[in-house]
Amino acid sequence: MKNKTFDCVEMKRRGAEHVYDLTKDMTFEEEVEFWRRRSEEFMRKQERLSARRPATSGSPARLRPR
User: Whole-prediction pTM value?
Assistant: First the structure.
């Protein structure tokens, strides 16, 4: 039997609980704004990371918004 050092389901559940805790008291409009800001932050981080690494044929260009 394997000793698990990483439990993907547990990680997913902790993440979902964290998001719930962050958004549980928000109105619908506040939650939409929360996700809009988080998406913008994510896209900026992706751009910074892709600018630092050399271009390859398997670059994540398909993930960028059109």
Answer: 0.61
How many contiguous H segments (helices) and E segments (strands) does the chain have?
2, 0
Instruction: Please return the burial class of 50, using the count of CB atoms within 10 Å of its CB with bins 0-12, 13-18 and 19+.
Output: middle
> Is-contact 34 23, C-beta < 8 A?
yes
Tokens of 53: 């690494």
Give the C-alpha separation, 51 to 46, whole Å: 8
pLDDT at 54: 75
Query: Which single residue is written with the structure tokens 């704004």?
Result: 33
Residue that the structure tokens 């719930």 belong to: 20
